[in-house]
DNA sequence: GTGAAAGCGCTAACAA
DNA sequence: TTGTTAGCGCTTTCAC
């Protein structure tokens, strides 16, 4: 049960070479005669030597570990991002330290400090909001930080996202085109920049195009989960809305069930479009028409971007926008 | 952008004490005069000193990092386990290196090696099967490994689970009691010990109690996902089954939708019970009656167990079984 | 192509 | 209560 017994020193002795040479073969350095390389490799194999990454990290000042702060792994949207991150991290031989933040500023700061203490080579940050406190933490980090599925109003950090505003315009337009005059906009906290500064504007853009006045009574805020969507159903039904665009799938699932339970038939009496195209969209009845977005890819691209930053390579663009789409299912009429 | 500049040495110099003393205050060692402690703390504050966990890990041979191997973060069941793990890990000041394995033996072995190379203090392993290859890897680990939501046929590793066999007996009995003679057993790969060695036996136990012969034609294997459940619907409908117990929620969601789409009304024509009580159970229509299990707690308890093992404390029990329950929803008749 | 040696930043005896 | 001094296992100049 005691850790690590065979060291680079043992290998050097057994192979009758210096530690430096062993280090070279372990790290694939070309400057080793192929015959010594073979000899060393044989000893490594025989002794079952496994390099100590901690010692290596201390000596080289690179840990090949990155930090990932996630609001909650249990949330499918973020889990999907995380999966994209982990896959390309593995591809580049990085490990991931994952930390749940619950979007609490206190926790976010604390996990950032932990991560930095562990000497991660970079950080990918997910969440719903970037405020001064956390922006400050980014500044204190001596390593690159990239945002995945998150926009900083200040645009200080590299990020990868989709065009939330345009996507919301598309979805709203789809409904307006069908003749709806009163389309509800159902979203999360409007203090979140992505909602207020992007989605809402996209919704308004569409209204403007159809010369429909913006009506605050048609915007509803939930907290992104199923229950809040379900509870919103009553208010939505009571409003004069005949359709809705929803910012995320869990709320949309709640809404469609809530509406159905309240005797409102979707899509006959009420049409709706959601935003994430997650598996939930096909589980609900009716299935949910949705904006499509490459969530996994957002994570993957963010991680790829981070590897470049860690290698001090130039970035072609600081804020990457991945393409989105739309798919018709059963919550809209043909 | 360069890492860590102020070291323990800088603090010592500024505070006019030795490194040892600084180390003591940082680690909360009691043997420091409170006035020197204050002095040192002030300097730490002023300089913005942040201990280097890598150096600490090398010197102390403890990294306060644990490895978590997970089949796929994107799977809600495992994500929930991971959340439980992370929460108690944070509570004990451990960080988590998360690695997706996709249940591929190759990947599992590889991530185990990575983790061990990083000198993690312990590992929590999740998956569906423990075979010789991976058992060997556990043996090679010089740190404790605990299984969460996974049983080893050999019972070599500490683990935490629920009584899958009894739970399945309960669910099956619920259906048998209602008068069903032909209850289907729908599960994942029967090569998985948890299915073959526990759930199936539990199903058979219930049948035996009701003197109903076991019929292989009533057992269906899927691969745990929505699609496979949906596709199984046709075969299930074609069989003489009038009810079913299902091993996981995604398959159950697929099955209920598949059945409904095929004109079979649940629960009127067909009753079913699922196993995880996840949010999916309330999203589907009808909502799914389910075995309830404390998934988050399984992760949490596994992590707690690991902390004990890492401290070389005695374990009261090697294989912990957490209580399960049952909840009636709409996929069974009252 | 290979080796010697000086750290990387910290902890943990052991002294004092 | 505090300081001194070895390391921890590796990378990385710098010589040879």
What does this structure look like?
The structure is a homodimer of 334-residue chains. With 334 residues, the first copy, chain A, is of the alpha/beta class. Chain A has three domains: 3-51, lambda repressor-like DNA-binding domains (434 Repressor (Amino-terminal Domain)), CATH 1.10.260; 65-162 and 295-325, Response regulator (Rossmann fold); 164-292, Rossmann fold, CATH 3.40.50.2300. Chain A is built from 13 helices and twelve strands. The first copy, chain A, has helices at 8-15, 19-26, 34-47, 53-60, 76-91, 105-117, 132-140, 164-177, 193-209, 226-238, 249-261, 280-283, 295-310, and strands spanning 65-70, 95-100, 122-125, 145-148, 159-162, 183-187, 219-221, 243-246, 271-274, 289-292, 319-322, 325-327. In chain A, the strands form two sheets. The first copy, chain A, has a six-stranded parallel beta sheet with strand order 2-1-3-4-5-11, sandwiched between helices. Chain A is elongated and about 85 Å long. At the A-B interface, helix 4, helix 5, strand 2, helix 6 and helix 11 of A face helix 4, helix 5, strand 2, helix 6 and helix 11 of B. Strand 2 (95-100) of chain A pairs antiparallel with strand 2 of chain B, so a sheet runs across the interface. Chain A binds a DNA duplex (16 and 16 nucleotides) through helix 2 and helix 4.
The unreliable regions of chain A are: none
In which order are the strands of the major sheet of chain A placed? Answer: 2-1-3-4-5-11
Radius of gyration of chain A: 25 Å
Principal-axis shape of chain A = elongated
Total helical segments of chain A: 13
Question: What is the CATH topology of the largest domain in chain A?
Answer: Rossmann fold
Q: Average pLDDT value of chain A?
A: 95
**Oligomer class:** homodimer
Q: Give me the secondary-structure category of chain A.
A: alpha/beta
CATH superfamily of the largest domain in chain A: Response regulator
For the record, the count of structural domains of chain A works out to: 3
- How big a fraction of the residues of chain A is strand? 15-25%
Count of distinct strands of chain A: 12
GO molecular function (chains A, B): DNA-binding transcription factor activity; transcription cis-regulatory region binding
Function (chains A, B): Global transcriptional regulator of carbon catabolite repression (CCR) and carbon catabolite activation (CCA), which ensures optimal energy usage under diverse conditions.
Protein name (chains A, B): Catabolite control protein A
Keywords (chains A, B): Activator, DNA-binding, Repressor, Transcription, Transcription regulation
């Amino acid at each position: 049960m005691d850790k690590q017994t065979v060291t680079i020193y043992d290998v050097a002795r057994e192979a009758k070479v210096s530690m430096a040479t062993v280090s070279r073969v372990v790290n694939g350095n070309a400057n080793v005669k192929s015959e010594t390389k073979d000899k060393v490799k044989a000893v490594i194999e025989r002794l079952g030597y496994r390099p100590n990454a901690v010692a290596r990290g201390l000596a080289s000042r690179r840990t090949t570990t990155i930090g990932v702060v996630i609001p909650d792994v249990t949330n499918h949207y973020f889990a999907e991002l995380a999966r994209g991150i982990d896959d390309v991290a593995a591809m580049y031989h990085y490990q991931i330290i994952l930390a749940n933040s619950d979007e609490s500023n206190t926790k976010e700061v604390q996990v950032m400090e932990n991560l930095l203490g562990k000497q991660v080579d970079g950080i990918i940050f997910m969440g719903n909001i970037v405020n001064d406190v956390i922006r400050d933490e980014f500044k204190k980090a001596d390593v690159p930080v990239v945002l995945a599925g998150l926009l900083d109003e200040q645009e200080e950090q590299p990020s990868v996202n989709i065009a939330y505003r345009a996507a919301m315009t598309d979805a709203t337009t789809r409904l307006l085109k069908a003749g709806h005059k009163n389309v509800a906009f159902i979203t999360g906290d409007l203090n979140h920049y992505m909602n207020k500064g992007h989605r809402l504007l996209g919704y308004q853009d569409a209204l403007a195009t159809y010369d429909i006045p913006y009506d605050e009574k048609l915007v509803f805020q939930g907290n992104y989960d199923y229950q809040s969507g379900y509870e919103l159903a009553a208010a939505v039904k009571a409003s004069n809305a005949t359709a809705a665009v929803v910012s995320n799938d869990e709320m949309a699932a709640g809404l469609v069930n809530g509406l159905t339970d309240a005797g409102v038939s979707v899509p006959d009496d009420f049409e709706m479009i959601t935003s994430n195209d997650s598996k939930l969209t096909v589980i609900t009845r009716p299935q949910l028409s949705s904006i499509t977005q490459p969530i996994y890819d957002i994570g993957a691209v963010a991680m790829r971007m981070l590897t470049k930053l860690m290698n001090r390579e130039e970035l072609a663009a600081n804020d990457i926008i991945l393409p989105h789409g739309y798919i018709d299912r059963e919550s809209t009429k043909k």
